[in-house]
Fold each of these.
Amino acid sequence: MLQPNRIICHYGELALKGGNRNFFEKKLQENIQKKLAAFLPSPIEKIRREYGRIVIELDFPNQKDLEKIQKNLGQVFGLVNFSMAFECDLDLESIKKMAVEIFEPLENKAETFRVSTRRSNKNFPLNSEEVNRQIGAFLVEKSGQKVSLKNPDQTLFLEITEKKVFLYLKKISAVGGLPVGTAGRALALLSGGLDSPVAAFYALKRGLNVNFIHFHSRPHTSAASVEKVFELAKKLQDFQAGSKIFSVPFAQVQKQIMLNCPESLRVILYRRAMLKISEAIGRKNKAGALITGDSLGQVASQTLENLSVVGEASNLLLLRPLITMDKEEIMQKARQIGTYDISILPHDDCCTRLMPKKPELHARLDQVLEAEKNLDMEKIIQDSLEKLEIIELK
Ligand code: ATP
Ligand code: MG
C-alpha cells in the first residue's frame, strides 16, 4: 500500500492575524520539531512553513512510527488538525494519477465520495470547483464509486499550493490553542490533587510556558507524595518541552502559622504564604502569572470571600483556569490528558495536615491581615528561596 510521505499541519488562522504571524508560526514550527525529534532524524529541513500551513516531510516511516508521530502531533498546541498526505506535481494529470492510487485500496469500503479542493495558488489554471468536478468525474470512471456531496463515505481533500499539490483522506484533530511559548511564562502551583494539573494544562493551551511549584511538609508528609507531583509535572511535558519544578519545604511555615495565628484562618494563611512565596520565585524566573486549580464552591471553603482574600496575597497576576468548571468536567479533562491516574494515587496533602476543626468559610481581609502581622513574611519568603530545590525536566 502506498505510504503517505507528507504531513500537512493546519493552525487557527484567526489567532495568527496581525503582526504576530511570523512569530507564532516560527514557534509552532520549533515546537513540532522538538516534539518529533525522536522520530525524524533531521527535522530542521523537513519541517517547513509553506503558505499558511506547515509541511512535514517524511522518510517513509514504518507504521509504528507513524502512529507515534500522530499521537505526538495531537499534543502540539496551536495545531487545529493535521493530515497524512501524498504530494504530487502541479498539474491535473499528476493529481489524477495520485488520486487513483490513493483511492484504489478503498474501492470496496466506500461507496460514495466527494472531492474537496482548496487552492491557494491562484495561478493554477482551474479553480477549486473545476478541479472538484474533473477529479470527481475521473474517479467515478476509474473506481465505480458515486459522488455524494452531502453525505459521502469518503472525502478526498486536495490542497493546491504554490509548488505542489497535497492529497489526503482524513483530517486528524489536534488540541488547538496557541503555540506554547507565545504567551509568555507562568508558574503553576501543583498540589498533587486532580485540579492543579488540569489548570496547568489550560495555561499551556493558551500559549504559556509553565514551570511548577510544589509545597511539601516533609518529613511529616511522605517522599512518595513529592514523587507523585514530579510524575504529574512530567506528564504535562507531553505539551511542552523543558520546564522546572520548584520544590519548597513548607513544614516550618505551617508551624509558625499554627503557633502564632487563629486556628480557623490556618488554611487561608497557608494559601496566602504559598502565593507570596510563589510570587517571589515567579518574579525571579520571569513568570508573568501564577496558576492555581481553584474552582468556585468545589469544597465548602472555596467561597468568593476566601478566594479573594487568598488571591490578594499575590501582586503577580493570578489565573484560575478552572474557576467555573464542574468537578466532572475537570475529571474528564484529567483523564484525557493522562494526569487522572497519577492524581488519584494516595498522597498526603500538606494542607489537610493540621486542619482546623472549624475552618473559616467567609474570611475577611482585615482579620486575615491582622493575623498575618504575627508572621515574619519577609523571612518566610527569604528562607523558602534559600531552601527550595529545583528539578529540571527535559
Ligand atoms: P487540587 O486538586 O489541585 O489539589 P483542590 O481543589 O484540592 O486542588 P485546594 O487543595 O484548596 O484545591 O488547593 C487550591 C489550589 O492551591 C490547588 O489547585 C493548587 O494550585 C494550590 N495548592 C494547594 N496545595 C498546594 C501545594 N501543596 N503545593 C502547591 N500548590 C498547592
Ligand atoms: Mg488539593
Note: The pocket of magnesium ion (ligand 2) is lined by residues 191, 193, 349 (CB under 6 Å).
Amino acid sequence: MLHVAVVGSGPSGVYAAQSLVQQDLVPRVRVDVLDRLPCPYGLVRYGVAPDHEKIKSLQNNLRTVLEHERVRFLGSVEIGPGALPPARLLDLYHAVVYCVGAAADRRLGVPGEDLPGSHSATEFVSWYSAHPDVLTDGFEQDGFVRGVESAVVIGVGNVAVDVARILVRGVAELLPTDMPDAALGVLAGSRVREVHMVGRRGPSQARFTTKELRELGALPDTEVVVDPAELALDPAYADPSGLPAASRRNIEVLRGWAERPPRGLPRRIRLRFFLRPVALTAGAAGRVAGARFERTLPDGRGGVSGSGQYEDIPAQLVLRSVGYRGVPLDGLPFDPERGTVPHAAGRVLRDGAPSPGEYVAGWIKRGPTGVIGTNRPCAKETVQSLLDDAPDLVRRGVPEDPLAGLRAAGVRPVEWPGWLAIERAEAELGRSLGRGVVKIPDWAGLRRAAQGQ
Ligand code: NAP
C-alpha cells in the first residue's frame, strides 16, 4: 500500500486524490486529504461567489472523491511552523502532494493602499463566503452600510466581476444563497449606486471570461455603462478579428453595451479601461475618498505607457482585485518571483533536483490562473510523476496508520463525520433563520458544530 498525503482539499487537492485512487495499480494507493480548516473544498467553498450555485454544486463531485473508500478527509490539520512541519509529514507518508493554492493577495504598491475603506477583493470575498480567518465584524464596522455610494474595483479579472456583482445585488437575490447572516444584513443595507471597475490596459487585454462578463448585463436594477470612445482607444476594438476567441467575444459584449441606450436603472457598473492606479486618496476622516488613475495609452503590443494625464474617481470603498499570490510554506522551497514552489512535472525541486516524495499541484505549482477545471490536468500530471516514482517511494518504511502518528504529534483532526456535523449545523442554522443552508463564519462555531454540539 502506498500512503499519500494531499495537503489542501480544494479542487486541485481533490483532483489529485481522485487521480491517485482511480489507478488500478499495485501497490494500491491510500490517500489522506489534509486541510487547515475543518471544512473541505477550498476555494469552491470559500472563493466561488455564493450566487454562482451551479459552480458551487461542484462540491457534490468533490464529495464523492472524499467519500471514496481509500480516501480520508482530515480537517483542522495545519502544516507549517509551529504546527506539523513538512519533514514530519514525510515521516508518516510515502509521498506528500502540496495543493495549498495561493493564499495571499497581490499588492498594488501605491500610496493610500491601506487606508480604511480600502480592502483586497480576496478579503471581501472571504468575508461574504464566511471564511473563519476573516474577522466577522470587519466589514460591518467599516461604515459599509452607512457611507458607501460609490465603489472602485481595481482590476478586470473574474474576481473583480464577482465582487462588482455582489456589491449591486439586491437582498432578494442574496437571500437564497448560503452567505452568512451578518454579511447578508450588511449588504441588504448597502446604498452603493455606482461601481467603477477599472483596468489598466484595454478591453482586449481584460482577464474576465465572457460568461462572467455577460452576467453583469443581466443583473436586475443595474445598468452596465461603457464609454465607446474609451473602448475605441484599443486598436483591436475596431477590428477584433486578430484576437483570441475569448477576447473577441468580450469585445462584442462590450460593444453591445456601448450601443445600448441608457435605461435609467438605479445602480450602475461602469467598466473603465486604460487607467492605471497611482494613489488612493483620503478624505477628511482619514478614510478612503477616491482613487487617482493615470490615463494610459496602448503600445500596440498589448502593453501600455503613461500619458501624464490623471483622473480621480470618488469612492468610499476601494476593492483591489489584482490577483492572488502564493505564500511560502516553511520547509518547502519557494520562488518569490513567481509565488510558486519550483517543480518539474509536479516533482518539488530542492536546489534544482527532485526531492523524493514531495509534489505540488494547483496554484502553488503553476500560479493563480485558470478556471477550476484547469486543475484536473494539472493534478493528473503531478500524479503521473508520483506513480512513476512509486516503486522507489514504497521502499521507505512508514507507519501502518499515519493517523496515529498525527495524533502523537498533537494533531486532533476533524474527520468526515465531523464535517458532516458542520453541514447539518449549517442546515439547521438556515432553518432557524428561515433561509436555506447558511454558513457558520467563525472558528468557535465551526469547532462546536464539528463536535456535534
Ligand atoms: P486575474 O485574472 O489575474 O486578474 C487580475 C487583474 O488585475 C487583471 O486585470 C490585471 O491586469 C490587474 N492587475 C494586476 N496588477 C495590477 C496593478 N498593479 N494595477 C492595476 N491592475 C492590476 O486575477 P483574479 O481576477 O484574481 O482571478 C484569479 C483566477 O481565478 C483567474 O484565473 C480567474 O479566471 C479565476 N476565477 C474564475 C472565476 C469564474 O470562473 N467564475 C471566478 C473568480 C476567479 P493586467 O492584465 O494588466 O495585469
Note: The chain has 19 helices and 18 strands.
